[in-house]
Each structure stands twice: as C-alpha cells, then as structure tokens.
Amino acid sequence: VFGAIAPHGGDILEEIADDASIMAQTRAAMQELGRRCALARPDSIVVLTPHGAVLQGAISIGFAPKAFGELGKKPRAISATFETDLPLAESIQQEMAARSLPVMPIAVKPTRRSKETSIVPLDWGALIPLWYCARPLSPAPQVVVMAPDRSLMRETLVRTGVAIARAASASGKRVALIASCDQGHAHAVDGPYGYSPASARHDEAMCAAIAENDLPRLLEWPESFLSEAKVDAYWQTIILAGALA
C-alpha cells in the first residue's frame, strides 16, 4: 500500500545532529514522508537496508520477536524497539526459497540488558526511516528488516521484490516497503569519499527515473557508473522496482 526511497544520514535526526540546520530540508522531507506513510495506514513495514546484517551471496531477513536499534551518544542519543512481523518475514522467506532466491534468516544476542534472548538489529539504514515512518504511529506498525548483498545479480534483486510483493498480498495486511538509500557519496573534495562528478550525474538520473516512474531503467546502468558515484542506493531500489512491477 506504500513504497518509498528514504535517506538515512545520521544528521537527519535532530536529536543527535551536531548542527540541525544542515539537514533541515531533508528532515522536513522525512517528516512529510512519515505523514504520507501514516495516511496509507500500514500494518507492517518492510525496510531494505544496505548497512545491516549483509551476508555474502544472500539477502538477510530478521527473525526475532523484537527489532531494536540505537544511535548517537549520551546525552544526545535515541533508541527504538519495534515488534517484528514474524509471519510476514516467514512468508517472504518461503516465497524466496520457492524461487531459489538466496535468503538467510538472522538474529543476534542483545548487547544491552534485555529480557529478549535475541533481537533483529536496527542499523542506521533501518532505524532512521522507521523513526519517521513507524515510531510516530500508534500502534506502531510491525517491521521486517532485510539487507541485500551487493554482489547479487540484478535479476535476483528484482525477483526478490516480486517475492516480497507476493508475500505482502497473501498476508492480507497493509504492507509498506521502504528502500533505505543514500545516493552519490562523492560530492565534496574534502568529504570522506572525495569528489567524483559521477555522483551528481547519478543523483540527477535517479531523480529523473523516480519522477518519470521508470525505475526499471536502472537495470541498464553500468557497474562502473555506480562505483564512480559511490552509492549505496542501487540494490535496495532494484528490489523496490521488482515489488512495484
């Protein structure tokens, strides 16, 4: 019932930002994203993150009753816990397995005092979109957290999106799908990734594909283009494209 591409830079969160003014425009856009998500009334949110439990040659899917994450350092720190939609996660896993798609369930032991024996870890790629799209809602939607390996074939990613859509449809629930994506990382000479003109070209091309509702065109983008632009958006976006097909 809802699909989105959302950034996940830590400074989007005013609670932990060193300078809240730097990301004010993006923060306002995320608040609008949360408003639109709320209007879709999702029962569950599937979030695709590039920074979670990435397993070589597979797509991980979180299998524990609770999903927990925290960001920042005290006194500027945030944390959130969500219920995992285990039936939906299992259905997605079964849909993927039936199509011979590489899926691996994961859970970890909590690193803090907790009654839970295992949790689904929420990295910043998952927690920041959920902070705006799930946390404000009451009751909060359940979540499913997935993380793709970047080495997977594009066909595999598209078919994963189809499997997610089929599982969502069969669940009878109102399901949202969020591709957590930062785009080009090489926009500044003094930035951590340096400068490449490919980043600006990539971001312009991505905006055009979204505005024209033509995500399948991304399948034609060469690997060299993505590498030069230093993106972490492509793989999750391809999965989203498959789900929307």
Textual characterization of the structure:
It contains seven helices and nine strands. By secondary structure, the protein is α/β, with parallel strands linked by helices. The longest helix is centred in the middle third of the chain and has 18 residues, at 154-171. It is globular, with a radius of gyration of 17 Å. The two termini are 14 Å apart.
Brief account:
By secondary structure, the chain is an alpha/beta fold. The protein has 7 helices and 9 strands, in the order E-H-E-E-E-E-H-E-E-H-E-H-E-H-H-H.
Low-pLDDT windows of residues: none
Residue share in β-strands:
15-25%
Largest sheet: 6 strands, mixed
Strand order of the largest sheet: 1-9-2-8-3-6
* Whole-angstrom Rg: 17 Å
Q: Specify the helix fraction band.
A: 25-40%
Give the termini separation: 14 Å
Structural class assignment:
alpha/beta
Number of helices: 7
Mean pLDDT comes to: 96
Provide the succession of SSEs.
EHEEEEHEEHEHEHHH
Number of strands: 9
